[in-house]
Design brief:
mainly alpha; 10 helices; 76% helix
């Protein structure tokens, strides 16, 4: 029988463990063996099940910030961050209730779909689809329309970076927006 006291202890311990797992991934990904990275990422998803929504919010925002501020061409870290977000979204996406967190997750995962690394791109694409489902957004078009200004800002920001790979990522995002969003929406004109 799980008592409220035990549940509270799990949450308290879970916060510490989740923070430690996230820190180990974000600070030393290059020195970790691939099998250890996979184990840590899997553990991150399991521990995320026992923490409070506030802790999930903090971790999600920390991960999206890490992706958005990656050192130039740190492709390995990109895939790691995508895998971490994917674990959280797939295992406890229903526990995330903040619309601001979902907005950040959707923006980050959408941008990740155009990551220069093909392996990372696959992770981010699957993560984006899971985020669409768990957030209740529904479709890619609905997500882009909700965050159009943020997507354009993020893409143009990437195009100003020194890394050509990041610049090309920004261009690919803008190209995808132009191909998928109706012109009337892009021009702020009501569709008939």
């Amino acid at each position: 029988v799980v008592t409220p006291f035990i549940r509270q202890e799990w949450k308290s311990c879970g916060r510490k463990v989740l923070t430690a797992l996230t820190s180990s991934i974000l600070s030393s990904s290059h020195s970790l063996a691939a099998s250890l990275r996979r184990a840590i990422i899997s553990a991150l998803g399991a521990v995320a099940k026992v923490v409070s929504a506030d802790v999930l919010t903090d971790i999600c925002l920390q991960l999206t910030h890490k992706y958005n501020t990656l050192a130039r061409d740190d492709l390995e870290m990109s895939a790691m961050v995508g895998s971490c977000i994917q674990q959280i979204v797939s295992r406890v996406g229903d526990a995330i209730s903040s619309t601001e967190v979902w907005k950040q997750l959707l923006l980050c995962t959408y941008m990740g779909c155009f990551d220069p690394d093909k392996e990372a791109q696959e992770v981010w694409f699957e993560c984006f689809n899971q985020a669409l489902n768990h957030s209740g957004t529904g479709t890619k078009l609905a997500a882009i329309r909700r965050m159009l200004a943020d997507v354009c800002d993020a893409a143009t920001s990437r195009m100003k970076e020194l890394s050509w790979k990041r610049r090309l990522q920004g261009l690919a995002v803008l190209k995808d927006v132009l191909q998928n969003v109706p012109a009337a929406v892009l021009c702020n004109v009501e569709e008939e």
